[in-house]
Design a protein that fits this description.
Number of helices: 19
CATH topology of the domain at 91-106 and 224-424: Rossmann fold
Mean pLDDT: 95
Structural class: alpha/beta
Shape: globular
CATH architecture of the domain at 91-106 and 224-424: 3-Layer(aba) Sandwich
Low-confidence stretches: none
CATH class of the domain at 91-106 and 224-424: Alpha Beta
């Protein structure tokens, strides 16, 4: 499998090269040169496999010959062995045509564990084979950082520096990152928004001497391996609900567009996905685009669902590339103009192509609280604020009768105890393995939104462990 950039001016790479590179040198994102496709018979043969075996089977076409099949299978088995539910990604039915898929049974109680527990092992394997090391830099709106740190803490060939918006994520989300005392980890709190953090990360990758000096890489969803590792849980849900002989729909609480893009990928690989529903909070750039072709940047507003407090959804570029028939020049020009003007101009014909599959939905904080309360009262199910967005979006856009919709439950409610307690009157408890989180000392550095200051902090981390 070979990978190309959405902007057409970066080296073509194999899977291992894309894993280590993260962002393409031309500022674009790597995508497969060709899409793998499974026949209905191929999909039927995968029914009933343990999750780790299904994951290895579906990720292998994206890996190609970069990692041998038996080794990839072993890495997948190890990645999911410690999850807190035997099914890894269980389905819970809420109504006749609606269920949730719980993606939060990993070590940090977030769906980000689904990909990052595997990515940490993939990095180890590739770095050992090449006898080199990398510095991973990333921006997190709450969950990616803790999942990446959990996956990489103490690994000999990886340094990890994550940026998060200062005082704009939950206490549990912050502490899951900042209480890790491993010498290869640095937490940087930026005085700004998640989009500011993301821009700083992209600027570090664009700084060619700095990128080369530190051998920068990424575990954010700009890294294609993240998307590939998220594909299997959509397949697991669809197969359990009768695919490929029955259609399914997915409702995804969405910030950076990587999670819902993985659902699009599984459809591109041949599973019958009838509808993809994109749930937004008050930071509603994606729902505005899908409802009225308005992709215009507004100020980021803090919300009850902080992992979705995003106005620039990086992974949308990958979908745009496909919608524009893989025209890299047009994709690059559109993205550059978007960043310059703050508004993306998408031709009506391209927008209508997107609208045949994707539907947008917006839910503000009051709606989130009402959904948590209603779902808990009527079904007994306790949803975190992000999952509540996905459930409400699903209810607003249920497809034809007979098509089950799966809302993605992306985080454990105990990650947002204040919001949950305010709604239902009692505080959800963290699992025992995280019970002492509030008592552990924190390790973080607060910095202004300033590239030289951030680069100096990242360089100090890398030099300390060289």
């Amino acid at each position: 499998m070979r990978y190309i950039s959405t902007r057409g001016h970066a080296p073509v790479r194999d899977f291992a090269g894309v894993l280590l590179a993260g962002l393409a040198e031309d500022g674009g994102l790597y995508v497969p040169e060709t899409w793998p496709h499974f026949s209905p018979a191929d999909w039927r043969a995968l029914r009933g496999l343990p999750y780790h075996a299904l994951a290895a089977h579906l990720i292998q076409p994206f890996v190609g010959d970069a990692i041998e099949t038996a080794r990839l299978a072993a890495l997948c088995r190890d990645a999911y062995a410690g999850f807190g539910h035997p099914a890894v990604v269980p389905l819970v039915q809420l109504d006749t045509g609606l269920c949730v898929q719980e993606l939060f049974h990993g070590p940090t109680l977030s769906f980000k564990d689904m990909a990052l527990q595997l990515l940490g092992r993939l990095f180890d394997h590739v770095l050992a084979a090449r006898d080199t090391r990398v510095t991973i830099v990333g921006a997190t709106s709450g969950d990616t950082g803790s999942a990446a740190i959990e996956a990489c803490a103490g690994r000999e060939r990886i340094d990890v520096a994550f940026l998060h918006p200062h005082n704009r994520i939950s206490d549990v989300q912050r502490r899951q990152m900042t209480t890790v005392a491993a010498p290869n980890i640095a937490n940087i709190a930026i005085e700004g928004t998640f989009d500011d953090c993301q821009d700083l990360v992209k600027a570090m990758f664009a700084d060619a001497p700095f990128r080369q000096e530190l051998q920068l890489s990424a575990m954010n969803s700009i890294n294609w391996a993240r998307i590939a590792a998220q594909v299997p849980y959509y397949a697991a849900a669809a197969l359990a609900l009768g695919a490929p002989d029955r259609e399914v729909a997915f409702s995804v609480p969405t910030g950076n567009f990587g999670n819902v893009l993985a659902a699009w990928v599984v459809r591109r690989m041949g599973l019958p996905v009838a509808r993809l529903i994109v749930g937004s909070n008050r930071n509603d750039i994606l729902s505005r685009f899908l409802q009225s072709n308005d992709m215009s940047i507004a100020p980021v507003e803090p919300s009850l669902s902080p992992s979705m407090d995003i106005q620039i959804s990086s992974n949308f570029e990958r979908l745009l590339f496909e919608l524009m028939d893989r025209d890299a020049a047009a994709t690059g020009a559109t993205m550059r103009e978007f960043r310059r003007a703050g508004r993306m101009h998408v031709l009506d014909a391209v927008w209508h192509r997107c609208r045949t599959l994707f539907h947008g939905f917006r839910l503000d904080d009051a709606g989130i609280e009402a959904t948590i309360a209603r779902v808990h009262e009527t079904t007994g199910y306790l949803a975190d604020p992000h999952t509540a967005v996905g459930i409400a979006a699903a209810e607003a856009h249920l497809p034809a009768r007979g098509v089950m919709t799966v809302a993605m439950a992306t985080a454990h409610p105990a990650k947002f105890p204040d919001a949950i307690e305010r709604v239902i009157g009692k505080r959800p408890h963290l699992p025992p393995r995280l019970g002492d989180l509030v008592d552990q000392p924190e390790h973080l550095t607060v910095l202004p939104n300033d590239l030289p200051a951030v680069e100096a902090q990242v360089r100090a981390l890398a030099r300390r462990n060289a």
